[in-house]
Sequence to fold (564 residues):
Amino acid sequence: MLRFKEEVASVLAPLIDWEKEEVFSRLEIPPDSEFGDYSFPCFPLARELRQAPARIAAELSNKLQGKGRFLKKVEGKGPYLNFYVDEQTLAERIVAEILNEKGDFGRSSAGSSEVVVIDYSAPNIAKPFGIGHLRSTVIGDALYRIYSALGYRCIGINHLGDWGTQFGKLIVAYKHWGEGKGLQDDPVRYLYELYVLFHREAEDKPELEEEARFWFKKLEDGDAEALTLWQRFRELSLAEFKRVYEYLGVNFDYYYGESFYNDRLDATLEMVQQKNIARESEGALVVDLEQFGLPPCLLRKKDGATLYATRDLAAAIYRYEEYRFSQMLYVVGAEQKLHFQQLFSILKLMGYPWAKKCKHIPFGLIRFPGGRMSTRQGKTIFLEDVVNRAVELAEKIIAEKNPDLENRKEVAKIVGVGAIKFGDLSNDRIKDIDFDWEKILDFSGETAPYIQYSHARIFSILRKSGGVLASAELRIITEEERSLVKTLGFYAESIERAAEAYKPSILARYLINLAKDFNRFYHNCSVLGAEESLRQSRLLLCAATKQVLANGLDLLGIGAPEEM
Ligand code: ARG
Fold:
């Protein structure tokens, strides 16, 4: 459809004496395809030409009759000029392209290898890899895939929470109540239990907090005992995180956690002082951000301890020096909005022009039945449990629907993991999500299993057909076929729009629409039973749809089994 859009821009531009790019950027997708596939609002011309927009639209539509290869029809409707694509021409182009390019269909080199750093997942050691980190993991991974498909060079960084005052608490708890076996057997849960225990005990014994601060200070000063414990906690937890990532099919280029920047903190703080943007009070170092309408940001405590913000400041500078990114995306919950505003403002005050290339990509909460989770009180839901449950449920459904399926376990994993990811990605990321098991696994709802099921259904049609003739002639005759072809044509655009808005949900919604269009087509147009030339044409549509469903799911990090 982008080619059609370009064509529309090229035929219209000379008639109104505008640049083609300007026309292109003004073309809108109407809310209902009844009003065309693209439409051009004539209001801005009215001022130029001193004529009513409706009259301009009518005149232009006359002049445009018969122009363009893809253009079936153009109509002036009120102040709008509506353009309709010729589905037959589009089908001939798009289906051939899809079947030639296969897995590469939809990819482009538009990003010209510009570097995009993506900071995502970033769970905290000692606090659980809870469901809250799921959103960052899944959205970040999808953005990584989408931007890579558009020809950007992505660098995925897991900014693990592997430093900070919680390690003081953890060391204290471990020294008082811990033992090696529990830690070894199930480190993530065990450390979390210690963390919860610490907070429970500290309610009556506030001196524990003091002790924890003392131990974190020791850790920051390089005390051998503290470091050894920290390292053990970190290694064991990281090994488990990596296992979960592998199961989810999520990758990172670097596991540079907060501790990675420890040896750059002094230099960073010195730089802040040299640039005269901070004030010291009793040893603490603070940056005032009043001019940005923000509260002050603490970069060093009185006792010399550094903070989350200090480490993020050092990390941002390191990353720019190292990667010269054109964008850096922090995929982190909306509750950290202030933190990132402060961080980016400090970078601005420090005079870094690249500060404006840093973006916070916020998202809402996941609400589980039973209320919001608090890591401190121990009411948490472990990501791994959620994923396991999804896979179990998927397996049950598959066992009912397709009892003879051979690799049921493997398929259940792809479907279960897909359901969880899609349940997240199909929602606008800013919105809070109410997690609902039945909803995300509904094979006929707006879910990954629905899309995967459509994909598998096409596989079975193609298998039964005995083969698709790539050279067959396309015959687009029904409304369902026309609509399917157009949706296929919008794939590339949906990827671009998802990237632009940093919203994988745009691609996810697109895939739901494509699967729906396909099912409507399949329901109303006979494929295998049609007369031969129509049968061949429809098989081509099936094959193209299957490819696009698989490609799109892949960009969301979701697999597409051939049977399920
Ligand atoms: N570990 C942090 C948390 O769980 C998220 C880190 C996000 N990335 C960053 N560079 N601050 O809240």
Notes: The pocket of arginine is lined by residues 119, 122, 124, 159, 161, 312, 330, 332 (CB under 6 Å).
